[in-house]
Amino acid sequence: MKNRFLELIRSKLGCGYVYGAQGEVMTKSLLNTLVNRFGRSHYYFDGYSAEKWVGKECYDCSGLIVWALQQLGLLTTDLTADGLYRICEPISRVALEPGDLVFYQNSNGYKNHVGVYIGNGRVIHARGTAYGVVETELFASFTAFGRLKVFPPKQEKPHWAEEPYTYLSQRIVIHEKRFNEPATRGEVFALLAQVVSLLDK
Predict the structure, then answer these.
(1) Contacts (Cβ under 8 Å, ≥6 apart) of 40
(2) Residue 170: CA atoms inside 13 Å, Cβ hemisphere, count?
(3) pTM for the complete prediction?
(4) Alpha carbon of 34 to those of 13, 22, 50, 147: distances in Å?
(5) What is the chain's mean pLDDT, rounded?
(6) Domain ranges (residues) in the chain
(7) What is the SS3 assignment for 117?
C-alpha cells in the first residue's frame, strides 16, 4: 500500500502548484473561483502569478497527499498540512522511511507545508507557485516528521528459524515419530543444528 502511495506521488512530478488545488486541470475560471475563496495574495505575489499553471494539472502541498490517499481509499476528507500531521504518528528525522511525511512548522508548532519523504534524503512536494510539484533534498526547514496511521501496520518478519520449524514440525518424521505426529520445538532445533553442522563441513 505504501509503495503504491509513493508511485502515485512520483507520478505527479512536474504538475503545477495552485493553492487549494487537488488535481484539477487549472482554468482561468477555476483560478478566479479560488482567488475569491482564499484571497488574491495566495495567487499573485512578488511578481509570481498562478496563471502560469493554467492548462496544467495542479495541486497544493496538502492537496497532493490528500489526492493520493483518496485514490487508495484511505481518506475521505480534505485536510491541510496541519490536519495531515494530526493523522500521523510523530517520529524523528533519523527514523524517516519512504512514505513518511515531512513538515515545515511555524513558531507556534502549526504545520504550514508538507511533503513526502522518498528515501536517500529526498522529498517530493508541491513546493509553491514558482516551482510546482518537484523533488528536492530534505531541507533543514523540514523540522517535523510523521508516519501516517492510515496505512496497514507493517507485518513483522518471522524469526529466521520460524518457517523451517513450522515446516519440519508438520511434515518430517523425527526419530521414531509417526509422519503425522508433530515434532517438538527441541527436536526441530536439534535437527536444524545437525543440518548446519553438515553444511559447515
Answers:
(1) none
(2) 6
(3) 0.77
(4) 22, 12, 11, 30
(5) 89
(6) 2-148, 162-200
(7) strand
